[in-house]
Structure formats: C-alpha cells, structure tokens
Design goal:
about 120 residues; alpha/beta; Transcription Regulator spoIIAA; globular
Length: about 120
Amino acid sequence: MSDLTISHTLSGDGTLLEVALAGRLAIDTTPELLALLREQLPTASKTRLNVADLTEIDLSGMQLICSACRTAQEKGNSFNFSGNLAPCVQEAIGVVGLQRHATCKHTIDQPCLWCGGLN
C-alpha cells in the first residue's frame, strides 16, 4: 500500500480538475500522481492541487508539480494550489531556495507557483 493518497474530481463540463494529496509525495510515490496528471491534465483548462495534507515532499514531488504547471501553462491552461500549503511543503520551498524566485520563465514572467503566484 502506498504512503500517498490521491483523490480527484473533474467538473461536469470537464474544465476544472481538483486533486487532493495526502501523505508522502516522494520519489517512490510520484508515479501515481504522474499517471493521474497525464490522464486528466489535458482535459481540464483549470487544475487546482491541494497539498494541505501532505506529510512529506521531496525534490521529485516538487519537480512533478513544476512540470505539471509548465505543461498546463504551455497549453494556455491554469494550474495552481488550492487551500493551505502543508508545513512540509513550506519547508521544502525554503530548503531548495524557491522563495527567492520572483517570477517563472515558464509562466510568462508571472510569480512562481511556489511563491504564491498564478492565483
């Protein structure tokens, strides 16, 4: 059994994908989220990711979220967090230095997703 729980809903018209994560988003659990995003991301024009219940996130989890954000942005779709960031996510942002980034080159110079951008 995985240490990551993923729940998701797609709105009736298929435009809003809401994904909630709980547990560990780490190198051994990211394939589960990757599979869901590969399947669902192309159909939704808006994606909201709730990470409030994560207990751990590593660099591979952060990279997957960045990649999903970039993929959505390249298609003209929105991708953002919903709810509060879990303490482990806030800590990871600081550890890897993302809080210092004002803009993201992949979001047409909008503030980076990790720094509260794309709302």
